[in-house]
């Protein structure tokens, strides 16, 4: 039996493959999870591991989840990896596939919320009411979504206090909404995956 699920981050969310069922009560099942961040990234101990323990608890040990030692694909590939069942569980970032998930662009707009929990609940309710069953989500059943509470700018050499401080600064961005906002502020938007942000900053490829 193949179960495919996804935790996807801009916006993050768990999904279950359409047509997949839970294991029979007497069967013990171990699901594999592919994660493209390191075991020390805060998402692993603060989100994934507690969720794994919850799964094991509520299924009375019948279902366990094992995070693979290495991801089975790049960050932008994880939605399809889940859909195809390459790994039972994956997580990704909706903004890494902007064309597929245009309906979620609104969730990256600034000033829409500063509380991660409240914003995540609002996004989930929006998904259930307006987006569930749409073509972008075919083949999976979303189990949850999430948003961060607000971004911070980390600059290699100076504080960013005013909007003008971003002018002509090379800033790592993760999607089209961030690109548009940065360019409107006079910054130079540089594409780069989240896990490489520190490396890009340290090497001077980006200023922030």
Structural description of this entry:
With 208 residues, the protein is of the alpha/beta class. It folds into 2 domains: 5-147, Bacterial extracellular solute-binding protein, family 7 (D-Maltodextrin-Binding Protein, domain 2); 163-203, no CATH class. The chain is built from 5 helices and 8 strands, in the order βββαβαβαββαβα. The chain has helices at residues 43-58, 78-84, 116-131, 176-184, 197-203; strands spanning 5-8, 11-17, 29-34, 63-67, 89-92, 140-147, 170-173, 188-191. It has a 4-stranded parallel β-sheet. A two-stranded antiparallel sheet has the order 2-6. A two-stranded parallel ribbon has the order 7-8. The longest helix has 16 residues, at 43-58. The protein is globular and about 55 Å long. The termini are far apart.
CATH architecture label of the largest domain: 3-Layer(aba) Sandwich
Task: Report the CATH topology name of the largest domain.
Answer: D-Maltodextrin-Binding Protein, domain 2
Instruction: Indicate the percent of residues in helices.
Output: 25-40%
In the CATH hierarchy, what is the superfamily of the largest domain? Bacterial extracellular solute-binding protein, family 7
Quaternary structure: single chain
